[in-house]
Amino acid sequence: MKGGHVDPTLEQQPSVSKGPLQPVDVTAISHTPQPTITGSLSSTPTTVIELSSKDEVATNIGSLHSRFASLDSNIRDEFEELVENGKVKLKAVARSAAAYLSIQVSSLKYGDVDELFDSLQPHYDFFSCGVLKHLTDTYLSNAQTELTQYIDSVDKFSESSQLKHIRSTIKEKSSSLPAAASPTTSNQTKPVVIKLTDRWEEMTI
Questions:
Q1: If you count Cβ atoms within 10 Å of the first and of the last residue's Cβ in the chain, which end, N or C, has fewer?
Q2: How many domains, in total, are found in the chain?
Q3: Prediction pTM value
Q4: Pairwise CA distance, residues 26 & 178, whole Å
Q5: Does residue 165 fall inside a structural domain?
Q6: Would 166 be classed as within a structural domain?
Q7: Are strands 37-38 and 15-16 parallel, antiparallel or unpaired?
Q8: In a structure prediction context, what are the per-residue pLDDT tens digits for the chain, which is 205 residues long?
Q9: Is residue 200 in a domain?
């Protein structure tokens, strides 16, 4: 889970991009507890999907966020123990992560475990944690099973009928929206806003 690009046409709504779900902005509102889809009055057409906190997809997102936060902490704890006992060199972990991500080692900070994982955070989140799986498979033992089970849950969620319905709705609505005129590009990004209602507080997915 992390913050993202802020659409200047929206009121402080953090954005995300997850697979086929086009850039998504998530914010909280206090009405309309049923999922709806509307257009935007801004110059760039925006699809808006409202999810109640009682909705199956919204509930699963909250559960995954919570599990992932605990998992991330456990992985850091296990790495700290290995480093303190001299069983793992943090620079080697940074090199392994950089190789997996195809980035330069110099782009990462690795003064301590938290610093390394903080610098890796732009490359993983609750819905896409390939680099964490790579590191746990390479160096850890205790977190392997927990992470594997978590990834299975993410896979099941991504294939859930409700999420598939949202994806198909986004695709349908986005395809019907005209792209903003541009002298240089013909394929414009069409933002999608997911609004979480009821008990949800403002958050970034």
A1: N
A2: 1
A3: 0.55
A4: 23
A5: no
A6: no
A7: unpaired
A8: 444 444 444 444 433 333 444 444 433 333 333 444 444 444 455 556 565 556 677 778 888 889 999 999 999 999 999 999 999 999 999 999 999 999 999 999 999 999 999 999 999 998 889 999 999 999 998 888 889 889 888 888 777 766 676 667 666 666 665 555 444 444 555 565 655 544 444 444 4
A9: no
